[in-house]
Amino acid sequence: MHLALTHVPVILSFAGLIMLIVAFFIKNATLTKTSYVVLLVAGVAAIPVFFSGEGTEEAIENLPGVSETVIEKHEEVAKLAMISIAAAGLFALAALFSLRWQVVARVFRMVVLLLAVTSGGLMAQTAHLGGQIRHTEIRNGVAPQNANNASSENAGNANQQQEKNDD
C-alpha cells in the first residue's frame, strides 16, 4: 500500500503549492479555493502513506542493497513532511471557511502558503530519500555500470581518440 500511494501526497502537495502561488499573483479566488482543496486532499493522503511505511520497512529491510540508515533518514523526514502537509491541509480547510472575513482569509492564505512551501520541500526530500532505499545508483550519484558496458565504453573512447589522432 505504501508504494502504491506514496506519490499521491507528493504530487498533490506540489500541485497545490503551484496553484496557490499562481492564485496569489493573479488574485483568483476560484484557483485559491481549488488549491486549498488540493492541499487538504494531500494532507489526508499523507496519513495512510506514512503509517503504511513501517510495514513496508519490515518487508524490505533484509533485502540485498537496502540500507537501514537510509530507511531511518527517510522515516525521520517523512514524519516532518506528514505533519507539515497535514497542517497545511487543516489550515487550508480553515481558510475555506474563513473566506467571508477578508482579513482572516488573508492571514490564513499566508499561513497556508508558508506551510505548503515547507511541506513541499520536506516532501521532495522524503521522496528523494525514499528513492535511495531501492535505487542504489542515486545514493552516491554515480550510476553503476556492468563490466560489458564499461569495457565497450572504454574501447569506444579509445577508438575516438585514435580517430582524432589520425586527423
What structural class do you assign from the helix and strand content?
mainly alpha
Low-confidence stretches: 142-156
Distance between the termini: 59 Å
Q: What is the C-alpha radius of gyration, as a whole number of Å?
A: 22 Å
Total E-strand runs: 0
How much beta, percentage-wise?
A: under 5%
Return the string of H and E elements.
HHHHHH
* Helix amount: over 70%
Multimerization state: single chain
* Largest β-sheet summary: none
Shape: elongated
Average pLDDT taken over every residue: 80
Q: What does this molecule look like?
A:
The chain has 167 residues and is mostly helical. It has helices at residues 2-5, 7-26, 29-60, 68-97, 102-134, 147-166. The longest helix is centred in the C-terminal third of the chain and has 33 residues, at 102-134. It is elongated and about 55 Å long. Mean pLDDT is 80; it is low at 142-156.
Q: What are the salient characteristics of this protein?
A:
about 170 residues, mainly alpha
What is the secondary structure topology, with strand pairs?
Elements: H1 2-5, H2 7-26, H3 29-60, H4 68-97, H5 102-134, H6 147-166
Sum this structure up briefly.
It contains six helices and no strands.
